[in-house]
TrEMBL record:
Homodimer. CDD domains: OAT_like. This is Acetylornithine aminotransferase. N(2)-acetyl-L-ornithine binds at R143, S283. The gene is argD. Belongs to the class-III pyridoxal-phosphate-dependent aminotransferase family. ArgD subfamily. It comes from Marinobacter lacisalsi.
Amino acid sequence: MNSREPVTRELFNDVMVPNYAPGAMIPVRGEGSRVWDQDDREYVDFAGGIAVNSLGHAHPGLIGALQEQAEKLWHVSNVLTNEPALRLARTLCELTFAERVFFANSGGEANEAAFKLARRYSWQHHGPEKHEIISFTNSFHGRTLFTVSVGGQAKYLEGFEPAPGGIHHATYNDLNSVKELISTEKTCAVVVEPIQGEGGVMPAEPEFLEGLRKLCDEHDALLVFDEVQSGAGRTGHLYAYQHYGVTPDILTSAKGLGGGFPVAAMLTTAKVADSLGVGTHGSTYGGNPLACAVAQKVIDTISQPEILKGVKARSEKLRKGMMAIGEKYDIFSHIRGEGLLLGCVLTDPWKGKAKDFLAAAQAEGLMILVAGADVIRLAPSLIIPDQDIEEGLERFEKAVAKLTK
């Protein structure tokens, strides 16, 4: 086969490891919040590459940043540093609580670094006994063995045991369940998503995060926020911790940070960062000049007040439109989430059938997501035009009308 032979969905089954089950449609082109497939059929994109395409498809600013850097320097390894990485780290420190940054390629890698840092910090400051991590049921932190073990969904660990030890799972939004597990002698960190993404788009209650901060302070444990999905402007704040007014010791960012280009970051304080001394951790491509140049443009764009304000306005429009459809066809009990990370919770008669809505929407030219079997998830571009929101809602209603007949 040469590179010019036709590519079909069937080819996936012949050449790819079967850990994914992609739909029949193959996208080939995107612009803004619209995508076209191999047959030149158009779709409105409410999925955003699972909260990744923060500025939509083929954003001129991102293309320009990538092209400009591509003509200069692609890769030098971390034996040397590079200008785009240093600029991006400085920007992230200026815009957040952070004083130090570590770059990686994915959310899973950023979380792996965060969990290793938490353990090493406690090992240095308190001794080897203080190594336990508290996470939460239904959480998701990545697919490495460590991150999938910290994650609170047993299905992702099945067949990969034994898992790393010293990990406990409390109940999300239940502070008492954390109090029962936390220990000054043993707990090194509490790891939490301010909004559980894969776990059903479940926002934390402010009192819960405030309570975690207090518990961590009382027990000399680090508070780690996984903002892989909730960060990079998704909630209408640059990071969700700013929405809640609760500052973690370590924060991880990926997905929307690169607007579609693979990049991730772990943010922390200078004191905590010191525990990852020379040679203790690394990444071949972490801090790659191409990735950092693109991420710089993303952050420069989405950190503008008018963009973040626009996220909240678009959220309200999308939420109201989906709720109106939900009430008309009795399919949603409620809609939860923040900004442009929304979860539409299916009513009892439709529980377990979220994927049916995904398929029906795609048939009408709309791309959406699920978050488990009972929740339809929406994570479109942060700058999706009102016209595309309206068109997407019309297409979704057509899909629902056919599905509920």
